[in-house]
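Predict structure. Chain length: 457.
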Amino acid sequence: MKLSAKEKVSYGLGAVGKDMVYMLSASYILYYYQDILGVSAIAMGIILMAARIFDAFNDPIMGVLVAKTRTRWGKFRPWLLLGTILNAAVLVVMFWAPPALDGRGLVAYAATTYIVWGVTYTMMDIPYWSMIPAFTEGGKEREGLSTLARSCAGVGSALITIITMMCVQALGHGNEREGFWKFALVIAVLFVLFISITCMNIKEKSTVDVDAPSVGQMFKALVQNDQTMIVVISIVLINGSLYITSNLLIYFFKYDFGGDTWYNGYTLFNMFGGAVQILSMMLFYPLLRKWISSLQVFYVSFAMAIVGYAVLFVFMCIGLTDIAALFIPAFLVFAAFGMLTVLTTVFLANTVDYGELKNNRRDESVIFSMQTFVVKLASGVAAMIASVCLSVCNLSDDTSGTAAVQAAGSSVLGLRMTMTVLPIAGLMLAVFLFHRKYILTEQKVEEIAEQIRNSQK
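Prediction complete.
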């Protein structure tokens, strides 16, 4: 029996909730601890990067636990619900640092809560993606649901981009420290609600044995499947470029663009960019696919992002202070990343069949476990780069408008280059490698699928 609309919506809602939580942490934890609480940027960068390295070992362990679980509710939903509840609680605690803490105590608090948050996020994220084979019939249905879920995850990320600072200001009445923990509480409640809907309406239709990939298996699958390798490298470069920008964007508006009311421009920019990102996944991508191939859309997206970053850098250098003009590069960058989010998932799915034909082994679970890990890796690397930028540029952790206005010219230039020129370099490297190595055109994918079907007869 094919999936009902209710099941698809329920699964998609779960993706919206979990990526709202992920984006809040990925984009704002550095700002919260560095600018609002005064933890050094380098200390935060080390914490964020170390947590991602820890995930390299944590993800496979979680996969083993899920694979060995047997309950009346299935193997996935108990972990999904438990992990969600714990992760939601830790999210609130992470953004609710005790006022009495300072210095090393605050660093220890940030490190502990962030690592525990990562562990509990993995607890629900691995079963969320791994359960797809247990309630789909494979083929187009499975690929379609994966793409839908990734698109919904992108919507969750975009919503956080749009509403965070606006809600923080409103909930905290101008006090960002208070506003962040209240906003984190709202997002945590929505997260639990959305995942509860997923758990209630999604039931396992088969007892699928989920491979629990070790780190060794992940690297073996990469080495033996050159197409997976190039897609994974592209995902790291694409997401790393995006996360560098998202981590530093708030500092651009605070120290370079804004003044006393910098957050008004930041909120408006994000509202526009987030809306464009959602439209690009739901509208622009399907429209373009009617006229050109997925690979052509991929290259068009790269060109849009690179041009958008270049225009943004030029606008920064000429001292443009018109927020409406910034909508031009914002449209190009956010629309591009929205489409790239969908396309990298599609291309990764294509490498599963390619690997099966080449190696006589279907590494579906291993490959999609790697996607979760490499996205986390990209966010950790980006956070470390952003932290180094803030430290080298010596940007103040004073949150007043006066400090924003008085930021040194050299510091501002370093900030501008890190959030635009570095992403351009990352994207250009990604498109160069992808163009040289990726061979899975739509025709090639169809040929591979036909060969696999014939071999199974």
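Summary: Residues 397-407 have pLDDT under 50 and may be disordered.
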